[in-house]
Amino acid sequence: LAWKAADGGELLLGGALEEPVEQAYLLFRGSREAALRFAAADPYVKNGLVKAFKVKQWHTVAGPTASNPLRPKL
After folding, report:
1. Average pLDDT in the 26-41 region?
2. CA distance linking residue 19 with residue 69, whole number of Å
3. Which of 63, 69, 4 lies closest to 34, judged by CA?
């Protein structure tokens, strides 16, 4: 499911944390709804392996794929 979302352009990155091992982060492009759709279809969520998740909006300002790039004027 993650690779399908990545191939479709909605998921930019996803993976588990080393510590604590029971957490993972998925970075979606676009709307909050894309992340919620992914969670609703995710077999880990649907089968109760993932008991809770949060969707938070992140406004990126630096880097080549920043959604709202803010470069200082030099």
Report:
1. 92
2. 30
3. 4
